[in-house]
Amino acid sequence: xxxxxxxxxxxxxxxxxxxxxxxxxxxxxxxxxxxxxxxxxxxxxxxxxxxxxxxxxxxxxxxxxxxxxxxxxxxxxxxxxxxxxxxxxxxxxxxxxxxxxxxxxxxxxxxxxxxxxxxxxxxxxxxxxxxxxxxxxxxxxxxxxxxxxxxxxxxxxxxxxxxxxxxxxxxxxxxxxxxxxxxxxxxxxxxxxxxxxxxxxxxxxxxxxxxxxxxxxxxxxxxxxxxxxxxxxxxxxxxxxxxx
Length: 244
Description:
By secondary structure, this protein is mainly α. The protein is built from nine helices and no strands. The relative contact order is 0.11.
């Protein structure tokens, strides 16, 4: 009886070694890496907010103080840097932080949705209001940044402002009810974003001990209140006549 001979299956051709991914690309491709990018970029924006808030409070000391500070910013770094170079460098760093923060948040959100394609039947308990509104808060803040630039930087929506005179621009801008509403809503969204994002960033950077997390949550709440109150004091000062 003849025995059938089985033809061996040819081995697939060798595709060669896979190209190695660089460390930055590997970091960006991981969930931990994206959370770290969100944390670092968020801390950069938080530092900017603190400086910006303290600068805004100069409006209570009169136009000379406020306008003098604005002029100093334009000449900061001279003669090593040319006129306004420092401002443009700061704007570039801030823009990069905003873009990286937004892209990381979007991609992490898509990964979270892909990991649980079947939605929760019941809403999860324990999530704070700030946690549940982080996404919409980010959208509100992004839209406000566009408005803020058009209002106090380019003067596009603030025809009563004066180029190069931030004190006069602030007073003119906050004398309209709609500018006050936009600003107040945006600053409340900023406060909620900071409250949740600050301690989330600390966790992403490795702070996981329960005691330290509780301390950071309390600190995040205090920081959010201070920043929100500091920013809101400016339109309230204009509306009440303290700033005129």
